[in-house]
């Protein structure tokens, strides 16, 4: 198959080769089907095909069964015979076992190279979603980001955000004057949500060195695309963290990659497994933005493939954009199942040879109803396709094999040690310390200048108060200096010379494309 990823055999006796055209692979896709029907193997063979065509891919390994991509299948494997029979049936004459170039990633830094981003890059919108904030709390988070942007306080890790929130809490009154109600109750609520996130391991996601997208878009020495596998088994315990991270990655790709129109083959293919997690109780506003990113990222040469049990899990606006489809079997136990099945069937261009709805119910394991975009991006008529067997190992590799792949990777060492640059936390801490020292010095000078009698009087009066004054002098002081800065900021804004305000993209991440 030229210019296409070979998917399997369709038509009578499964003898007609079916392929996913590389030219239209950036027009997104869907892999759906009930549990155990072959979605993961389909994902595996698509990754193999893209890699072989020189297209890097990114995928999350939700069940831990994709690492086998790094190792060739074997004639000694249990499934060797069914695989070769299947290959023969679909006319896959040059079927051979092969390993693919894999880079393992892991937010927790155990099963792969660590992946990190900064709080600032994630932005207020996604972070609010991640923290499940109320509208009022989201408002405060927006103010926090704005202040950080304006005041040059880098928000790198969660510690930075926490420090900034403490500062906002201390200055709630002044900030309310400028931004409207900044309630310390809401600030406290965000702080508590951050603790929850930290307990889920979220602290690991934020910090530096942050992931460079170019590291996901590499090819090996033979020109094969890198298969990037994100360990997600542990991550799945915090579905919000999982979904938000993938969404962030998508939005980063969108913001950072240059416009390429419709390339001969995609620059990257992004598989979004357990896609329903992205849409489960997501607010309409977020879904709209995902829809927008999906629509626009196409022209950056990125194809996004959603994998989910039921196509009904994907909002209609987004479903409508998924041009390449592999629909494995759906069950039809309940009235709702049947309705969803009918709706799924209706989205295909009918094949006179069979009834789509019946086919979706009847296809066997590793078989699917497929429709790929053809010339001019028109959906092809639906086919019953026997999916090709994988060339790489089915099922995971061992921990030792994984460690070997990681050690040999170009990425080894690049992200392993976290870096703690001076950021909001340190700046605010130093500012507070400086303010406290200044306050103490001012106080001493005032004391020295006082008349001896007055000093005695004040000392006596201050006996119980001095310490309190000193320990709170930090916030008193910073409030005053903040007040000064605020005036300056307001003046700057009025005269329209801010200019420094950081531009944020569709999903609120930093906009770096300019
Ligand atoms: N294309 C294929 N070629 C050969 N065997 C296949 C193919 N697809 C599926 N199978 C067989 O079916 C089994 C189940 O497939 P798979 O793990 O892909 O299902 P799934 O839909 O991902 O299930 P789950 O929802 O549980 O993750 C595989 O382990 C394999 O034995
Ligand atoms: Mg699976």
Automatic annotation (TrEMBL):
Q: Where is the composition biased (Low complexity)?
A: 461-481
Q: Which CDD domains match?
A: TrwB_TraG_TraD_VirD4 (cd01127)
**Positions of region (Disordered):** 445-481
- Domain Helicase HerA-like C-terminal, chain residue ranges per copy: 15-510
**According to the UniProt entry, where is the signal peptide?**
none
SUPFAM superfamilies the UniProt entry points to: P-loop containing nucleoside triphosphate hydrolases
Read off the InterPro entries from this record.
Answer: HerA_C, P-loop_NTPase, T4SS_component
Alphabetized Gene3D superfamilies for the sequence: P-loop containing nucleotide triphosphate hydrolases
TM stretches of this protein = none
Q: What is this protein called?
A: DUF853 family protein
What organism is recorded for this protein? Pseudosulfitobacter pseudonitzschiae
């Amino acid at each position: 198959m030229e210019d296409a990823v070979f998917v399997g055999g369709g038509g009578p006796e499964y003898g007609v080769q079916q392929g996913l055209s590389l030219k239209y692979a950036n027009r997104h896709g869907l892999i759906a089907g009930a549990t155990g029907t072959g979605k993961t193997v389909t994902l595996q063979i698509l990754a193999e095909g893209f890699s072989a065509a020189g297209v890097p891919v990114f995928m999350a390994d939700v069940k831990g069964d994709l690492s086998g991509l790094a190792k060739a299948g074997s004639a000694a494997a249990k499934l060797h015979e069914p695989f070769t029979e299947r290959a023969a049936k679909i006319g896959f004459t040059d079927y051979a076992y092969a390993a693919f170039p894999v880079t393992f990633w892991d937010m927790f830094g155990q099963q792969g190279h660590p992946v990190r981003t900064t709080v600032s890059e994630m932005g207020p919108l996604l972070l609010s979603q991640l923290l499940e904030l109320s509208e009022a709390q989201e408002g405060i988070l927006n103010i926090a980001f704005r202040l950080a942007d304006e005041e040059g306080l880098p928000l790198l890790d969660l510690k930075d955000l926490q420090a900034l929130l403490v500062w906002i809490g201390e200055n709630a009154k002044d900030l309310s004057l400028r931004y409207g109600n900044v309630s310390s109750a809401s600030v406290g609520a965000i702080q508590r949500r951050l603790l929850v996130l930290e307990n889920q391991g979220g602290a690991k996601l934020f910090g530096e060195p942050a992931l460079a997208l170019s590291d996901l878009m590499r090819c090996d020495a033979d020109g094969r695309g890198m298969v990037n596998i994100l360990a997600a088994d542990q991550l799945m315990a915090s579905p919000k963290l999982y979904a938000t991270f993938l969404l962030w990655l998508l939005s980063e790709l969108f913001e950072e990659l240059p416009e390429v129109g419709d390339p001969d083959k995609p620059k990257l293919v992004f598989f979004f497994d357990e896609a329903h997690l992205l849409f489960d109780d997501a607010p309409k506003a977020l879904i709209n933005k995902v829809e927008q990113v999906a629509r626009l990222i196409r022209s950056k040469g990125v194809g996004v493939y959603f994998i989910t049990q039921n196509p009904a899990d994907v909002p209609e606006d987004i479903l409508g954009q998924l041009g390449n489809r592999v629909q494995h079997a759906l069950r039809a136990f309940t009235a709702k199942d049947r309705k969803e099945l009918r709706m799924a069937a209706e989205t295909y261009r009918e094949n006179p040879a069979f009834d789509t709805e019946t086919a979706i119910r009847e296809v066997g394991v590793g078989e699917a109803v497929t429709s790929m975009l053809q010339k001019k991006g028109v959906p092809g008529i639906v086919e019953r396709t026997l999916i090709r067997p994988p060339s790489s190992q089915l099922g995971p590799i061992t921990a030792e094999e994984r460690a070997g792949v990681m050690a040999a990777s170009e990425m080894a060492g690049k992200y392993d040690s976290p870096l703690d640059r001076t950021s909001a936390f340190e700046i605010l801490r130093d500012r507070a310390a400086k303010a406290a020292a200044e306050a103490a010095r001012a106080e001493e000078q005032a004391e020295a200048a006082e008349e001896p009698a007055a000093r005695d009087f004040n000392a006596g009066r201050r006996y119980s108060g001095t310490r309190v004054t000193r320990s709170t002098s930090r916030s008193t002081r910073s409030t005053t200096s903040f007040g000064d800065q605020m005036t300056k900021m307001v003046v700057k804004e009025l005269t329209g010379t801010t200019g420094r305000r950081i531009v944020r993209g569709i999903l609120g991440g930093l906009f770096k494309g300019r």
